[in-house]
Amino acid sequence: MRKHLLLAGLAAAGLCVQANAQEALKAEPGRKWDGNIELLLSGKQPTAPLGAGQKAATAAGVNVLISCTDSRAVMDALEADGLTGTVISDEVMTAYVPVAYVRTLAEMPEVKYINYPRRHMPTLTEARSATHVSMVHAGRGLETPYTGKGVVIGVIDQGFEYRHIAFLDAEGNTRVKRLWNRSQYSPDLPPLSQPKPTDVIPEGGDGFDEGHATHVTNIAAGSRVSGVDYYGMAPDADIYMIPSTFQDAEVLEDVQAVKEFAEEQGKPWVVNMSFGSQIGPHDGTTTYDRGVSDLTGAGGIVVAAMGNEGDMNLHTQHTFTADNETVYILVDASGSENGYVYFDLWGQDANGRRNLEVRPFYFKGNRINYLNNNVWNQSAQITSTIDGQNLKENYSYWVSTNNLDALSGVTGVGTGQFGVAVTGNAGSSFHAWCNPGYGEISSNPSPLHTFLPGDNEYCVGEGAASIPAAISVAAYTTSNTIHSLNGSTYQYDGAVGAIASFSSVGPTLGTDMKPTVAAPGHVIKSAMSQYGQSFSAGAYDNVASVRSGMRTYYYSAKSGTSMATPAVSGIVALWLEANPYLTPDDVKSIIRETSTHDSFTGSEEWNTRWGYGKIDAYAGLKMALEMAKTGGINDMLNSEQPVTFNKEADAWKVLFNNDESYADVTLYTLSGACVSRRHIEKPRRGEETQVDLTGLTPGVYLLNVSTTASNMTRKVVVD
Fold it and tell me: β-strands 111-115, 121-122: how paired?
């Protein structure tokens, strides 16, 4: 036992150690925390690698995520000691405690495991049309009374222009009902130093450099603005903005805040998460993943980005076929900032034992060099733990290759690279990832050594798409051209209809099917914040501007699963308006049954690129209405209009939003001559009838739908 504790302590201190590959995990009493907490307890700050000779600061306090058997009991104990926390669910909570108090916290029998927050990164005309959300497009598309009215859409992001015209109603009033600025959140600052949620929406921006959040929010819920066609999927939804640091303890509290606000208003809610990372187990077992899932339920949905790593070799894996077999992984940091590497390896034997021996090395001069502990201590932060949730072993490395080069004393031709040697016995396996921007798994650079190849698989975004309950979204291309405000036209790579090359690839290592669905995410035009430091009114990707009063508002083109995700968030808001009690499983069922397939998606089976296919708002709305009918749900939030129209080239589909005693569906010429008429007795919610347009003379017709309480007429264009 003492041997294990010494090894764990050295690893947590950033030293290179070797552990017996088959040694059982024997936890120190109270040792219920992850590697980053261990760094804090050993006097180190779990941030970036240090420069040579630098010393890390030690935090006085720390925000932590706690997995427990009874959150309320733990909260009572914290409050008795004068500390604060937030109960997320019966088994998940957050708290701010002095670093030294972690040991006391771990001694509580109700506490299972303590995590330090991870930090994640940020990841419409064509979009609305492709998903069948367009209100009217040349006489075709979807015309629906469902606009997100009565639904709260929470956006956790960075780069809000709070009062962009896209977030105002027709009278100029803000549609943002609540704002919680979390931009100053830190794992090492007490929550009392943070601003509180407010319904006072200021001018200006949130201080983040990019306009990512403004772009994302408009795709989900942007208002119709005269002269601009780039409005959102749910243009009448209520908006809750949360400028965020993307640290998972904070995000847990953010989701809970949206949920509580929506429930106070008696409204269903959707939270959009256009961020993520590749650091984590990729199996949905983290305290954070379970905590967010616990917050969802009937009328509460989380939609999350898969990530933009589909064209990167960030992943590798191996299953050992013989005892004491050793394999080697090399990381190319040439494209990362300052040569930093962030590498994370997870053994897959969930038995609470150390089944692997992992040794870092420095590859230079065509040699694998195992360096002394002093060099690693000055050049890296290394943690080695058994995860308290999934009982898998985890080895995490944050490395400065510049420091390695300066301190290692290794000479030779070429740029040195970080790597690890992994030894295991037959049947054991592991998966490993680099975080995007911090290295990729290298190809074999030497005839003298063989390294595991990198690939782009198993890259479901941690912190968002990895959440079991989340609707995880891939991106495909609906446009590859922009017409810039500067007068030029720009062409982008990617075939219209195809998956975006950057869209991250599944599957997950958990039991969920990830991705869930694909939505438009390439060259998407949407609102842009002018308050980011990088904003320029003359940028080539600005596609529209609107002058209102003394201000000019901008719209630009961006690409990413960050753009695909709010498209799905807005569509889910439409479904929740029709059926406010949909659960995450309900939404997944709707997507599974109604998503479209074509030559790009392939068969109707789930796959690791597309999930269940391309999202279809209309077919999903129909199923949501049918589910409401079978579930005995009668209190729809918007039942003012009797039908939804879905306009296609050869037919108009008429979907009944409510139960009716009768309906007459009649098609006329402009001169008033009847072309076709259908009388329907007692149509029911979710029932559909079609008006066939084949064989009609090209021209304009009128479609009339008459029910007990209403009479609607729409223009029909036949080409």
Answer: unpaired
